[in-house]
User: What shape does this take?
Amino acid sequence: MAFSMKLQHKPNSYKVQRRGDKSKSWSELPQDLINSVLERLDFADSRRAESVCSSWYSAAKRCVAKKQIPWLILLPDEDDKINNHWCKLFNPGEKDKLYKIRDEDVEFANSYCLATYGNWLFMVDYWYNLYLLNIFTHERIDLPPVESQLGTTKLERTLKGWFCISNGHRKRNRKDIKIVSPVFWIDEHTKEYLVLWGFGEWCVAYSKKGDTFWNQIQIPVDYGCSHMVYKDQKLYYLLKDYIGSNGFIKIFDFSGEIPRETFQCGGVPGNISSLDPTGNSWRITNAKLVVTVTGDVLYVENWATLFTSLWSFRVYKVYSSGLFNKYEQVDSLGNEAMVFDLGITVLANDDIVGGFKRNSIYYKTTCRGKNTTQICLFNFETKEMEPLHKFDCSSQEQLARSLWFLPSFKQT
Assistant: This one.
């Protein structure tokens, strides 16, 4: 079931007229009663409730924020001309609904969503134009051209539509640009932003509001950008060698005009052949950095079996001890839940229907043979996976283009 949605609500002042009574305002209802009503509403009805009056508007904002869970955004297939300007949003708390949003100025079928932050998407179109897009308000911020690189690595478009990449030591001609682990941050009010993306094995490109170019952080020889997380003015940066057997973690402070490296930890946990001492069917399929609510850095390995759909996780805390940096295996996330694809943890609340469950890892799996996406939860205590929802997609391409985002409905 799909719904089109408009999310711009302004509080009105509706009155309730009772026979024999003076006019009563909805805002005069007891706060506990208002909260009790709003906590039973789904997302769409909660948004509609904001238009009742100012007190309902404030209460609905607080209620939605408490029930915040990650959503999934689905873009149409590249050859889908009918739904070219539409995208779909899936809220796991409302498993029987898909919300549809239309933007006449964006060709979603010819675009990819590279990363998300709150209500904003980091987008790239077929011609490699980069921009930020607010999925609800349709506000768009165009970013500098990919060729505007300020640093050792140079990028030029050739007459054949390919790209020529060079850095003084090597030169490559490629049809596509390899954008690795893009991340960004944006202030909802001032629209200050910082966008970063890994340029394959060449460098990390970044640009701030007001820049007309991309600055660069160079990558050491024989390594490539594997995964990045940006939080609280810090870039957490995982590099791996070409065979994935060795790597290290760096942290850059972006609070000043020029990013400053503040931490480096080498020797990430190696690729152990199996999770159990007798079997060898488990393999590491992915490794990412995750930053917790309190700022701890986690190195997370995603394990899966070769011939089944079983998944598991190993989590290590990265910390300094004197002159040495260490990895300590973590057995619990406490009252937090991990959103693996976003590289963050959030505070969990088991008492809220559809909310995050504590000590759990949320992730998305795809079965390309059956064109299905499955939203799963890994219980850190029981070491078991629990499917939350599975829905059909039109093609493998649509699965590859789906992405988590954390909608922000803060009170203004």
User: Anything to note?
Assistant: Residues 62 and 411 are 7 Å apart (CA to CA).
